[in-house]
Design brief:
heterodimer, A: alpha/beta, 7 helices, 7 strands, B: 215 residues, 8 helices, elongated
Chain lengths: 203, 215
């Protein structure tokens, strides 16, 4: 009996074309992508038919968690630095070392009361993120630090646009609190961040 | 590598050696795939949208009231109640009849059909403009300009939005969205008054609250 000889053939798949495709896709993704800003929590914004895109720069985002905690995000590092300067002038007993200033610029979210800010900035970045989850900028009428931050931010950058990014399940009084703070500061034009929903049929 | 010839040996003179010049691209593809995955997870393709909102200054809160005094007939007040139920009434609040307050919902058959019916004239103009926009007959600037003109129509509906403490942010955005869809030119977010609280109470107790005040 003669065995059937298995023919040995070299199996070489040419991956060049595949590589071309993946590089093309990669380029597409890199060019179209906008990075997600790091936020202490993920909020689900309500849908709306409005089609205005949020601006690329000069944006102050006020993040409102469903339980009413408020965070701030200033997109330009120069502004953040100037705002912190103004704040430390208000609180003479608070001085920030270069280390702390760097930490402040690296942490995208502003979300602690002034009193704990120096201690907060001494933490590592991951500790900061954990701390932020249960912190938030005080917004009560006696000690409205949200108003202070917004006032200084608009002072530093007059082109600043204000946007409120609230979770859809946030009770209205929590949002109203933020809106009335803005009204107190005479910031009557602001934006609500929403996700896109198609125009209903027939409209 | 095994295939590299060191030269000499049995190679014939003058004839250039044929080298197997095939680069294996598999690791390259692997790496690219990994990068693509990274980009897909860490980025957003679509930018979030935003809705602009202009609130009146706190110094002049009377404006909307004065205006609505003129066009009482064209005013609709929407009260955003608890459990995602909006209520609305036309014109002046009627404290005596609990049926003047109508419960609705946020579906197309609810608030939208009511607003569409009431705002038919302005909405008709707006729909025509939107159709033109869809066919790309008008530019974005023209569209903005003309939609502003249409919404300035004096016969347009005036909507007063009153969110209660029990309503959610989603309710507010939903109603603001309806303003956009139904081309309402004038609308304002106003705080609840005692009268409105009473209206709600009267509605829930089916007129009993009003009967009590008469005693």
């Amino acid at each position: 009996m003669s065995k059937v000889k298995v023919q040995k053939r070299e199996l070489f798949i040419d991956m060049t074309a595949m590589s071309d495709v993946t590089v093309l896709l990669l380029t597409f993704f890199m060019l179209t992508a906008t990075f997600l800003p790091k936020e202490p929590i993920q909020v689900i914004t309500p849908p709306s038919v409005m089609e205005i895109k949020i601006p690329d720069a000069n944006l102050l985002t006020i993040l409102v968690k469903p339980d009413g905690l408020v965070y701030l995000n200033l997109d330009r590092p120069e502004d953040k630095k100037a705002v912190l300067d103004l704040v430390s002038k208000d609180y003479p007993d608070m001085t920030f070392s270069n280390q702390q200033l760097l930490s402040f610029l690296n942490q995208p979210t502003i979300g602690v009361p002034f009193s704990v800010l120096p201690r907060f900035l001494d933490m590592s970045l991951s500790d900061q993120d954990a701390y932020l989850k249960q912190s938030g900028v005080p917004t009560d009428s006696v000690n409205n630090q949200l108003a202070t931050w917004i006032r200084y931010a608009t002072q530093v950058n007059s082109d600043l646009k204000i946007a409120i990014k609230a979770d859809q399940e946030t009770p209205y009084p929590k949002v109203q609190n933020v809106i009335s703070t803005l009204q107190d500061l005479k910031q009557n034009r602001f934006n609500l961040i929403t996700t896109l929903k198609g125009m209903p049929e027939g409209y | 590598m095994a295939e590299i010839n060191t030269g000499g040996g049995e190679a014939k003179k003058g004839k250039p050696q044929k080298k197997n010049l095939r680069v294996d691209f598999t690791p390259m593809v692997d790496m690219n795939m990994l990068l693509i995955t990274f980009f897909m997870f860490c980025t957003t393709l679509s930018k979030p949208q935003m809705m602009n909102l202009v609130m009146p200054t706190k110094d002049a809160p009377k404006d909307i009231n004065q205006q609505s005094k003129v066009d009482r007939e064209k005013t609709v007040t929407i009260i955003l109640g608890a459990d995602n139920v909006p209520y609305y009434y036309f014109g002046e609040p009627n404290y005596e009849d609990y049926k003047s307050l109508i419960a609705s919902d946020y579906s197309p058959a609810g608030l939208r059909s009511m607003l569409t019916e009431r705002n038919a004239k302005v909405l008709g103009n707006m729909l025509e403009l939107r159709k033109e926009k869809y066919k790309e007959k008008v530019t974005q600037e023209e569209f903005n300009e003309r939609s502003r003109e249409i919404k300035d129509d004096k016969d347009g509906l005036v909507v007063v939005i009153k969110p209660t403490k029990e309503s959610t942010y989603r309710n507010l955005v939903d109603v603001l969205d309806e303003m956009q869809i139904c081309a309402i030119g004038t609308y304002a977010i106003v705080d609840m008054t005692e009268g409105d609280e009473f209206l709600l109470k009267n509605y829930e107790s089916k007129g009993a609250a009003f009967a009590e005040t008469k005693k």
